[in-house]
Write the structure tokens for this entry.
Amino acid sequence: MPYASPEAKLANERRYSHRRRMRRQERRAWAGFYVVTRRDVRRLLHRYNGRCAYCGQRDDMLGLDHVFPLARGGQHRIGNLLPACPSCNARKGNSTLMEWAGHESWKIRISYDEPF
């Protein structure tokens, strides 16, 4: 649908962007969106000795992987996060840990030395 003016198009885009942002905030509040602090992340990485929780590889580019994905109803909280190298994180994708473990031919190394 053509707009009467570029200003009208810009106003519509802003309105839509605001609505989208508000819906996202409502979903997060409804899903129990938690704050994960830097300290939490440091402790998690220390717990796994700076290694991927899935393959045990030491990597400088470790990221955080949601064991139960956000897209499937998981929560963004420290108990749902594991350190993962980029290749394991990409392979796991949107599947749960148990689904992914069932499809992988190698044994997943989910262990750590000592709890903190």
Notes: Residues 63 and 84 are 5 Å apart (CA to CA). The domain at 38-103 is CATH 1.10.30.50 (DNA Binding (I), subunit A).
